[in-house]
Specification:
The chain is built from 14 helices and 2 strands; from the N terminus they run αααααααββααααααα. With about 350 residues, the chain is mainly α. The longest helix has about 35 residues, at about 25-55. Keywords: Cell membrane, Membrane, Transmembrane, Transmembrane helix.
């Protein structure tokens, strides 16, 4: 009996006397570098692209300059804000393909209020944002309370807004934007372009909305498991409707900024933002918190595409490179997001 007990004690103490660690601990030790690459791979790739274009002889003279950095940041501010607009309903697994059309429409609305109606600039800006919120509210109401497909509704709304834009402008470009708005879109504060300040404020507001409010937690719950959200009594329909209203309002901010940057408004000008915005969101879902749509990931996604295209353009790439790069980014990002989602489901099981 004593020998048997002693044998058991030796077996218990063996792992503390130099024996190999448990298999699970070993796997965790070897897996963390892969997890780190999975979480921050796109961030590292962005850094690598920046270094490459800084050292490549074809771009090394212009790419690392302060003027080029400011140019990238200011030019991409509109796209980032449009992407943040599309991000809000996408957290609840609802697509908004009307973001670009809302950007164009709110730009026209702001210009008409400021120039033709000759109302104060503050009212013109508020009017543009409210127009965006109203369009988003209509989208959200139809999608949430009629259980309509978000892709179809927002695509139809995009087409409808394109026609309204033509009706409002009469195929003309609206000019005469107030100088203070132009100054905001093209000047700097503390050496940083003013649009970048607006981008930062909008990103912080959306991050707070999604991460630190009950509304944001409800959106995440709906996106993760909508049937369970309904079972526990969550106001799913109202939350989805408000998500589209918030999306429209943020897209309205992008529309006002577009007007401030260009000094003019015309039908269809903002429609080109939809695809790059979605590409940025899905690219962002593969980094930092893989499988989730986040503000930080979206910022990385936007600037990954922007820096790549900027560097290629400076190197003399032809016009077809940008649409090909954007399209490829969408395909690869959606595929990667799908793979990550499957891995998360397997891990949950």
């Amino acid at each position: 009996m004593t020998l048997s007990a002693g044998t058991r004690d030796d077996q218990v103490q063996a792992p503390h006397d130099g024996a190999p660690p448990p298999a699970g601990r070993s796997r965790r030790t070897t897996a963390w570098p892969l997890e780190l690459v999975e979480r921050f791979g796109l961030v590292l790739l962005l850094g690598g692209i920046v270094v490459f274009f800084c050292l490549w002889p074809a771009t090394s003279d212009v790419f690392p300059t302060v003027a080029n950095v400011r140019n990238i940041a200011a030019n991409e501010s509109i796209l980032v804000i449009a992407a943040l607009a599309a991000l809000i309903p996408l957290v609840a697994e609802r697509f908004d393909l009307s973001v670009g059309a809302i950007v164009a429409t709110t730009s026209i609305a702001t210009a008409k209020i400021a120039t033709e109606w000759e109302l104060p600039l503050v009212l013109a800006i508020a009017g543009g944002v409210l127009v965006g919120a109203a369009i988003g509210l209509v989208n959200g109401f139809l999608i949430a309370y009629f259980n309509a497909n978000s892709l179809v509704i927002t695509l139809g709304m995009s087409t409808l807004l394109a026609g309204i834009g033509v009706l409002w402008t009469g195929y003309q470009t609206l000019l005469g934007v107030p100088q203070p708005l132009l100054d905001f879109g093209n000047l700097s504060w503390l050496g940083i372009p003013r649009p970048v300040w607006l981008l930062a404020a909008t990103a912080l507001a959306v991050a707070f909305l999604l991460g630190f409010t009950m509304f944001g937690r409800r959106l995440l719950a709906i996106g993760s498991n909508e049937p369970a959200s309904r079972l526990v009594g969550m106001p799913v329909s109202r939350t989805v409707m408000l998500a589209f209203a918030c999306s429209g309002a943020v897209a309205g901010v992008a529309g006002v900024l577009l007007l401030a940057r260009t000094g003019s408004a015309a039908a269809g000008v903002g429609t080109g933002y939809t695809l790059p915005a979605l590409a940025a969101i899905f690219l962002g879902s593969t980094t930092i918190r893989p499988g989730r749509f986040t503000v930080a990931g979206t910022l990385v996604g936007v600037f990954f595409v922007a820096v790549s295209i900027n560097g290629l353009t400076l190197a003399g790439a032809e016009d077809w490179v940008e649409p090909v790069f954007n399209g490829a980014a969408v395909v690869l990002a959606v595929s990667a997001a799908a793979v990550i989602a499957k891995k998360r489901k397997r891990a949950a099981r």
